[in-house]
Specification:
about 375 residues, 4-stranded antiparallel sheet, 3 helices, Elongation Factor Tu (Ef-tu), domain 3, conserved putative lor/sdh protein from methanococcus maripaludis s2 fold, Helix Hairpins, disordered N terminus, alpha+beta, rod-shaped
Length: about 375
């Protein structure tokens, strides 16, 4: 029996259609290319000048403006203590009295001797005028009077040594001794510190010496008051650099009107130097290129141009541009992941910086 094969009726029209389409030319001609890509939607920002400073961190120790340990200059018994712990005193205020009975008695004797010599001088002066007594006798009496005056001055100094006073305005520390105790030179009675203004000593690497000047502002912090910043300025830069640490000692002055800061406290120092105004861009606009950084610049033809930049100091949300851009240039901030150099862009908005942190002290009271 003879077998016959038939093509399905559906395949024949499809084959004919394929042959016809192969014989036709494309509507754009045989040389037509790929249609241009659509413009990438981006948001931009203007390069603007912002203040920048170089920050150096260090650690320093606080010292009082004036500080002394109160001690006696002679060996004697304390009669009375004229202060309380932590008391504020003025220069010349009495802090302690030492026993001075012997000196008081010597003073009375010396004054009596001086009075006697002065009477004798007056009597002999009359006799000298009548030539009853030689001039040399009068001069001897005058010499003895001078010696009596010197004895009084010496005893006054001895009495002064037994009256201990404050050498300057300040705050006294804790009392280290009691009335009736025998003190000697070097025995500490208490301490006296002038702490309305504090000295902060710290070191700075010598590489920063060229940008370090007196009057430079700094911010200091301490763990005792973690929520407070203490602002001061550099008063003195030492004349020598430590050859071991290659750093230079620096002394700053910190106002301390409420006397919260105390001598001996450890503080971290944030030194602001080399203040300047430089072009700045949002950090999110940066495009990493290995170890380099670049940004997309919007050209006059509304295309993206990849520009390499050199960065400087960073501040929250922004970075300083040392070279590559100028103030007023328009850069792309959002949409950089979809871009390539030379791509067409469509600006759909301006970059909106993040909102400032909420400050509860500036909030309006609830009515």
């Amino acid at each position: 029996m003879e077998k016959r094969f038939f093509l399905p009726s559906l395949l024949f029209p499809a084959a004919v259609s394929l042959l016809v389409s192969c014989g036709r030319e494309s509507p754009a001609g045989s040389g037509a290319g790929t249609p241009p890509a659509a413009a990438v939607q981006v948001s931009t920002a203007q390069v603007e000048l912002r203040p920048f400073t170089d920050t150096t961190l260090s650690v320093g120790n606080l010292r009082a403006t004036e500080s002394v340990e109160i001690s006696a200059s002679v060996t004697e018994k304390i009669v009375s203590l004229e202060f309380g712990d932590g008391q504020t005193v003025k220069k010349g205020d009495v802090i302690a009295r030492l026993e001075s009975d012997e000196e008081t008695a010597l003073m009375e004797i010396a004054k009596a001797e001086l009075a006697e010599e002065q009477r004798e001088i007056g009597r002999i002066e009359g006799l000298v005028r009548t030539n009853a007594v030689a001039e040399v006798t009068l001069e001897e009496r005058r010499t003895q009077a001078v010696r009596a005056e010197g004895a009084i001055s010496r005893i006054e100094a001895m009495v002064k040594d037994r009256l201990i006073t404050a050498p300057f305005d300040g705050v006294l520390g804790l009392r280290r001794i009691s009335a009736g105790a025998l003190v000697a030179p070097g025995t500490i009675i208490t301490t006296l510190d002038q702490i309305d203004t504090m000295k902060l000593d710290f070191t700075v690497p010598e590489v920063f010496l060229g940008t370090l000047t007196t009057g430079t502002t700094l911010t200091a912090r301490t763990m005792a008051f973690p929520d407070n910043d203490f602002t001061g300025s550099i008063e003195t830069i030492d004349t020598r650099v430590d050859p071991v640490t290659r750093s230079v000692p620096v002394r700053a002055i910190l106002p301390n009107p409420d006397r919260r800061l105390r001598p001996g406290m450890l503080m971290t120092v944030e030194l602001q130097r080399n203040e300047r105004s430089s072009p700045a861009i949002p950090e999110r606009a940066l495009v990493p290129l290995g170890e380099r950084q670049a940004v997309y610049l919007v050209t006059a033809e509304t295309t993206a141009k990849l520009i390499e930049v050199i960065l400087g100091t960073r501040i929250p949300g922004y970075v300083e541009i040392v070279s590559g851009l100028s103030a007023g240039d328009t850069i792309i901030v959002d949409g950089v992941l979809s871009l390539r150099d030379g791509a067409a862009v469509k600006v759909t908005g301006e970059y909106a910086p993040p909102a400032a942190p909420f400050d509860p002290t500036s909030a309006a009271p609830v009515k």
